[in-house]
Write a structure and sequence with these properties.
alpha/beta, eight-stranded parallel beta sheet, about 40% helix
Length: about 280
């Protein structure tokens, strides 16, 4: 598969560089971070424009809050995301459009509207999603949620070795996707910090992220303002920016390729600083 540094990642007809910014735009009224600020269609489209101007390579559109909350059926998720995908595709033809969904029906509709990537943050609860990505010729994010049902939280979760569990699941899902016909250079793996995991697990994944990047699959990290950062630093959601940038920097040094964030401009500056440092010597070298 090649080394993590040379493994290509190609989406929307372009090869993404070593530090690709994935900007979050949620069309949800109850987002944990922005509390619905981009729920309206116009507000969401404006947020896309700001993210693109700030240097985002990928726009990740979501129509369902990750955590527990109001039920959102397929029809409502479609209403929230399909028209936005089509509008972004029309306005920003070169940007990579990702949709955060675990549902195959939604995947089919957004692929037809112009999406380039399906971001399955719940670790494959609907095995048909990979088939949809293959049929549409688009990419897929293979994540790990510890077997949780979508929109549920773990209760006293435990792993013998959380990184080994993540590695086994995401690499199997990635190989399955390729076997179904998804292009190898359009598959990413994501350990999914906090999904089915507690703070200790998410910190362990961050420390050992090099084990994931060593697989050769492009690694996506989605750590922006998450609870493990807040719990570690004792900070509320709106006070986790500095912690987020620190984890992004460490993840970049360890070989992560795609960074899902709420603040694209700050993330771009932080990752540009990592790039400017150049290759770092091994610890103790």
């Amino acid at each position: 598969m090649g080394s993590p540094e040379t493994t290509p990642l190609r989406l929307n007809g372009r090869e993404l560089g070593p530090h690709a910014i994935m900007a979050v735009v949620n069309r949800t009224p109850d987002s944990f971070f922005d509390k619905g600020a981009t729920y309206g269609f116009g507000a969401a489209l404006d947020a896309v424009g700001r993210a693109v101007a700030a240097g985002a390579d990928i726009i990740d559109i979501g129509g369902v809050k990750a955590g527990p909350g109001e039920d959102v059926d397929v029809a409502e998720e479609l209403r929230r995301v399909v028209d936005l995908v089509a509008a972004v595709r029309d306005r920003y033809p070169d940007v990579v459009i990702s949709v955060d969904t675990w549902r195959a029906e939604v995947g089919e509709a957004v692929a037809a509207a112009g999406a380039d990537l399906l971001n399955d943050t719940w670790g494959g609860p609907d095995p048909r999603l990979a088939e949809v990505a293959a049929a549409a010729g688009i990419g897929l994010v293979c994540s790990h949620a510890g077997g949780l049902e979508p929109r549920t939280r773990p209760h006293r979760t435990s792993f013998g070795d959380v990184v080994a569990d993540v590695l086994g699941h995401v690499t199997a899902e990635a190989e399955r996707a390729v076997a179904l016909g998804v292009r190898r250079d359009a598959v990413l793996i994501d350990p999914a910090h906090d999904f089915g995991k507690n703070t200790r697990h998410s910190l362990e994944i961050t420390r050992r992220l090099g084990e994931l990047t060593a697989t050769g699959w492009p690694v996506l990290v989605a750590v922006s303002n998450k609870d493990f950062i807040g719990e570690t630093l004792g900070r509320p959601v709106d006070g986790r920016g500095a912690g987020t940038l620190a984890v992004l920097g460490v993840s970049a040094v360890l070989g992560a390729r795609v960074f899902r964030v709420h603040d694209a401009a700050a993330a771009r500056r932080a990752l540009d600083a990592v790039t400017a440092l150049g290759p770092l010597p091994a610890a103790g070298g």
